[in-house]
Amino acid sequence: MVCIAAIPRHQFGQLNSMNHNADFRTGYIAIIGRPNVGKSTLLNQLLQHKISITSRKAQTTRYRIHGIVTQRQTQFIFVDTPGFQTQHTNRLNSAMNRMVTQSVRDVNVILFVIEAMHFDQRDLSVLKILPENVPVILVVNKVDKLADKNQLLPFLEKMSAQFRFAAIVPISAAKKIQLMALLTTVRNYLPVNSPLYHEDEITDRSERFIAGEFIREKLFRLIGDEIPYSTSVVIDQFEQEAHICKIYATILVEKNNQKAIVIGKKGERLKQIASEARSDMEKLFDSKVFLNVWVKVRNGWMDNEQALRDLGFE
Question: What percent of the chain has pLDDT over 70?
Fold first, then answer.
């Protein structure tokens, strides 16, 4: 199986005693931006593994996730964050915004991701929360979609006047353009330090957490525009045996009619959600997966403080 869970804290001393180059660098890098600019796609491409879910809908990422990239002289610990919400005011969105603002406080570098040729009030709202004492690299994503590449330079010059960026790096996360240049730029701002994770680890999140996220991604991809925002996923049971993972999960919705839509006619939509999620799990876990998914109504969970705490929101 791919090693995706973080090592116990008591093993950190063993890592620090390993022999590394005197210029080995380790640090935390927050990836922030408004929804749908490609933050999670960027993380997955850097890791060369899918751990952060993606879709065309805003709010797909709800949790803070650490993605770990270890090279010969550097360990990058990326902090993927939810898109900063400016249009919704329920407690769920407030909790996600708190994650973003907390994430930029205790990192070594910030990647502020925007879409090439697009900068509006939503991006400006994120720009306003950036601290002045942390290097901020502007990551201009989706440059592959530009029909006229000559437009890019004036746009970059315009953006350089918006904030004192440490660097500006145009990329395409989807096409893997300039990603190595981005890592090289980030490394310049990381402190000299020993690695905090083993070199084969790619995230601090458990298989149990990733399983729930894969199910939630299929809800965002396979259900209509509104309903996925009212859903969440709970992993009730996760059993790991020699050659198979047995996973029992519950999809939470807010209303009875939402439950019927998620299940679909004769259960076909729920079967598709489970089938596609199971396929992703088997690829990452390198193991067969048995997945059983139910749907349950929990009224008002998005505005219920205790429900949000139970679902892992700070």
Answer: 85
Query: For position 14, what pLDDT does the model report?
Result: 37
Sequence spans of domains, the chain: 9-187, 207-310
**pLDDT (average), residues 192-212:** 92
Closest-CA residue to 29 (of 13, 16, 11, 47): 47
DSSP H helical ranges for the chain: 12-16, 39-47, 91-103, 121-127, 152-160, 179-187, 207-222, 256-263, 268-285, 305-310
As a whole number of angstroms, the distance between CA 201 and CA 5 comes to 7
Topology of domain 207-310 in CATH is GMP Synthetase; Chain A, domain 3 (3.30.300)
Which tokens in the block code for residue 36?
């749908």
Strand blocks (E) in 54-124: 65-70, 74-80, 109-115
Check residues 237 and 101 and name the one with the higher pLDDT.
237
Q: What confidence score (pLDDT) does residue 270 get?
A: 97
Strands 74-80 and 109-115: unpaired
Amino acid 78 reads F
pLDDT at 176 over 90: yes
**CATH superfamily of the domain spanning 9-187:** P-loop containing nucleotide triphosphate hydrolases (3.40.50.300)
